[in-house]
Write a structure and sequence with these properties.
It is built from 6 helices and 17 strands. Strands 1-2-3-6-7-17-8 form a 7-stranded mixed β-sheet. Strand 14, helix 6 and strand 15 form a beta-alpha-beta unit. The protein starts with 5 loop residues before the first strand and ends in a 19-residue tail after the last strand.
């Protein structure tokens, strides 16, 4: 490794270390993880691995975090990997490979043999045993529903009381799908909602549910996620939202919605990759909810 660099692990409790990672991700990707402070902070299960220079800058990082999954009705103890970045002037020195190997070893020692990550460069991770998982959204004409007036309230992430409502439902949610879904990912739900202004978070008291949705460019309704103790059927959601849309796109498996739709290949900016879980493990089309993207 380069002289003048210090390896650090599990440094989120140090304000200077966290600030170093925040600056690194802002400089490389233009994202501000500091936004999470208003929603309770970073995922407490996250384990960062990083290199810092003598000035205290984080010059390279790769983080792991607990990401329990439901796949085909079974719980899988998976690990998510994120916040992988190296400052340009420190690339080509083996820092990233070193940090990845440390994170993978930590996850395996913790009893997790399944890993997930999102990337624009799949080839970078294939040499470490990762492969791309094809994703599909589910599309179709809007099913008939009976509009119900006054059964929805749109939430505001700048209102503390609304944040508490969302957090409570996320903490007690039923996984949105029994085919493929994240069991718990509160922090990224808030982060993704905050970073994508077109997303609407609607509270439906009658269903005890928060619905994350937005309109598509062709005036269709895109259903992104549901936070509820029991996932309601699509017909009940549409009745309460009462949004005029001729088409529905659901961005997660629809096995709990009472509606199927047609699987359509999802062409996102990033590829979902997995290690330790074969393509055939997920027997039917699926998609990771955009609200759980990391």
């Amino acid at each position: 490794m380069l002289k003048g660099l210090t390896f650090r692990q599990n440094y989120f409790d140090d304000p200077a270390g966290l600030r170093g990672l925040t600056d690194l991700l802002q400089d490389i990707f233009g994202i501000d993880i500091g936004l999470l402070q208003q929603f309770g902070g970073l995922d407490p299960s996250s384990m960062p691995f990083g290199y810092f220079d003598d000035a205290g800058r984080c010059v390279a990082n790769f983080s792991a975090f607990s990401m329990p999954l439901i796949v085909n009705g079974k719980m899988i103890r998976a690990t998510g990997y994120q916040s992988g970045a190296v400052r340009p002037e420190f690339r080509g020195q083996g820092l990233y490979r070193d940090l990845m190997q440390r994170a993978f070893a930590w996850a395996h020692a913790s009893g997790s043999n399944v890993g997930l990550l999102l990337t624009k460069e799949p080839s970078l991770y294939e040499k470490f045993g990762f492969h791309t998982l094809p994703q599909h959204k589910f599309c179709g004409p809007t099913p008939e529903f009976r509009p119900i007036e006054g059964e929805v309230r749109h939430l505001n992430l700048q209102t503390r009381a609304d944040v508490v409502i969302i957090d409570s439902l996320l903490s007690n949610r039923q996984p949105v799908s029994n085919r493929f879904s994240i069991v718990r990912q509160t922090e990224m739900f808030f982060f993704n909602a905050e970073c994508d202004p077109p997303i609407t978070l609607s509270l439906i008291p009658k269903l005890n549910a928060v619905i994350a949705w937005k309109l598509t460019e062709d005036a269709g309704l895109m259903l992104l996620d549901i936070a509820a103790p029991q996932i309601p059927p699509l017909s009940a959601i549409l009745s309460c939202l009462n949004v005029p849309a001729g088409r529905v796109e659901v961005c997660f498996p629809t096995d709990r919605l009472g509606w199927e739709g047609q699987p359509v290949a999802y062409d996102g900016a990033c590829s979902l990759m997995s290690s330790g879980m074969a393509h055939e493990t997920i027997m039917e089309p699926f998609m990771l909810s955009p609200m759980a993207e990391f």
